[in-house]
Design a protein that fits this description.
- This protein has 169 residues and is mainly alpha-helical.
- The chain contains six helices and two strands, in the order βαβααααα.
- A two-stranded parallel sheet has the order 1-2.
- Helix 2 packs across helix 6.
């Protein structure tokens, strides 16, 4: 790490952290104060992860996938985001590994076992994770759309008085 961007928490402003950052040539970039931070990207990412987890948990309960723990839901939500959301045209997985990892479900596969997994009423652990990953991907898109709509609803577009406009002559 070369630059550490954080809000102005008490622990990050201590002399010990300053000496450690100097020792490893890390630049501290303290942002915001009094409730106003510029670390909003991380906060929005966590908010999105929570929304995806809650939606996926609801889907899992509705579909009888009761063996999924909160850790499993967090993992699936994070993986769905890391393979689907793009920043500058690349997903986080592409930036780290050079490609997106192979999905649990291959659409073109025509094996009998893969097709029969969808109709199982008591799926095994692998089928449960495959279903939860698919729900997490769907919920990622839904959560992003809902956040964008909510943000747009709270914006204040300019209102133009059309009666004062004059046509070009």
């Amino acid at each position: 790490m070369k630059v550490l961007t954080t809000d102005q928490e008490g622990g990050i402003k201590t002399d010990e952290i300053a000496l450690t950052c100097d020792r490893y040539a890390i630049v501290r970039r303290l942002k915001g104060s009094y409730g106003h931070t510029s670390t909003g990207l991380a906060e929005r990412h966590i908010e999105l992860t929570k929304a995806i987890m809650l939606k996926t948990k609801s889907d899992a309960e509705r579909n009888g996938l009761v063996d999924l723990s909160d850790e499993d839901l967090a993992f699936e939500a994070a993986m769905a985001q890391n393979t689907m959301l793009e920043y500058g045209g690349y997903t986080p997985c592409q930036c780290v590994m050079g490609h997106n990892p192979r999905s649990y479900y291959e659409f073109e596969s025509e094996t009998l076992e893969q097709q029969l997994g969808a109709v199982q009423t008591s799926p095994d652990v692998f089928e449960q994770h495959m279903r939860s990953r698919m729900h997490a991907k769907q919920n990622t898109l839904q959560a992003v759309v809902e956040q964008r709509i909510a943000r747009a609803d709270h914006s204040r577009p300019q209102k133009l008085d059309l009666s004062q406009l004059k046509p070009n002559e």
